[in-house]
Amino acid sequence: MLSFRPLPCLLLHLFLDLLGPEGSQTGSVPSAVKTLVWGPGLEADPVLPARFFFIQAVDSSGTNLTTSPGEKTFEVKMVSPTEQFVRIWIQVLDRQDGSFLVRYRMYATYRDLQIHILLKNKHVAQSPFILKGSIYHEGCDCPQPIGSVWEAHMHCPQSFPQIDRDLDFFASVDPDRNAQEIPERFGQKQSLCHYTVKDNKVYVQTFGEHVGFRIFMDAILLSLTRKVRLPDVEFYVNLGDWPLEKRKSSENLHPIFSWCGSNNTRDIVMPTYDLTESVLETMGRVSLDMMSVQANTGPPWSEKNATAFWRGRDSRQERLELVKLSRARPDMIDAAFTNFFFFKHDESLYGPLVKHVSFFDFFKYKYQINIDGTVAAYRLPYLLAGDSVVLKQESGYYEHFYNELRPWEHFIPVRADLGDLLEKIQWARDHDEEAKKIALAGQQFARNHLMGDSIFCYYYKLFKEYAKLQVTAPKIREGMELVEQPSDDLFPCPCLRKRSKDEL
Ligand SMILES: *[C@@H]1O[C@H](CO)[C@@H](O)[C@H](O)[C@H]1NC(C)=O
Ligand SMILES: *[C@@H]1O[C@H](CO)[C@@H](O)[C@H](O)[C@H]1NC(C)=O
Ligand SMILES: *[C@@H]1O[C@H](CO)[C@@H](O)[C@H](O)[C@H]1NC(C)=O
Question: Ligand 1 center to residue 15 CA distance, Å?
Answer without folding.
Answer: 28
